[in-house]
Amino acid sequence: MIKKCLFPAAGYGTRFLPATKSMPKEMLPVVDTPLIQYGVQEALDAGLTQISMVTGRGKRALEDHFDISYELENEICNTDKEKALDGIRRLIDECSFSYTRQTHMKGLGHAILSGRPLIGDAPFAVVLADDLCLNPGGDGVLTQMVQLYNQFRCSIVAIQEVPAGETGKYGIVAGECMREGLLRVDRMVEKPRPEDAPSNLAIIGRYILTPDIFDLIAATPPGAGGEIQITDALMKQASRGCVLAYRFKGQRFDCGSAQGYVEATNFCFENFYKPAQAARLSQGLEQPLKVASVA
Ligand code: G1P
Question: For residue 6, what are the β-bridge partners?
Fold first, then answer.
């Protein structure tokens, strides 16, 4: 049974400056909920209750978010505002949280390796919170991947087709089709130019990794961008054993880009916020908005 989920969250978020100058990019809200909370909810929905985060300087808000805020909670106690904390309270009650810091930004592979003391010798999931993955009405992406892991017991990456010109933004995989939506990986390249890409199937920020990955990362030299890449370590794992690539059901929003962030915001507003607000209104828990009339 997989119980652990690692969130690499040490990156600077330079694509969202100035918003991320003193605030972790993982705390950017999509409507009223920070990105990291969507990710932890997805993990809990998949039965992963041991949450570990690799943070860095300036990221304390992440730890505070997954803790009680006595003063605030006392202030809103017994008011209609209290309900807004139901979701985060459930995560705090049902999950455990542990943290470590990555002192130097040496790439995603290095960030995952920094989480080794928190994960130990167990299979684990990895979530990159700025890839927001949603599947309203169906299983979340991690739930789908945990089900596959229970069947195949090997590392799995989530994939999605991307336009051929965008391969340089992703890890790209190719392999043998095992069944509809599932590949056995035989090639994997980090951020190839379109002409060098083995396909247009891009890795999205959801992984399930077996713990032998740690030794493979430790032996991986810097690759694309001079960083230690998880993609390179996974390629070694694929050539020795088995790595699967899974075309998940659901939608993915690249919330590391302004366009993806705005799209995610509109999607969540329509699919989650508005229906919840309508339910509150019908129960009389919230007053309709008063629109000021212009004389
Ligand atoms: C990372 C991975 C890349 C993957 C991407 C998904 O890249 O290195 O393989 O396709 O996440 O979002 P980054 O976006 O951190 O540059």
Answer: 52, 126
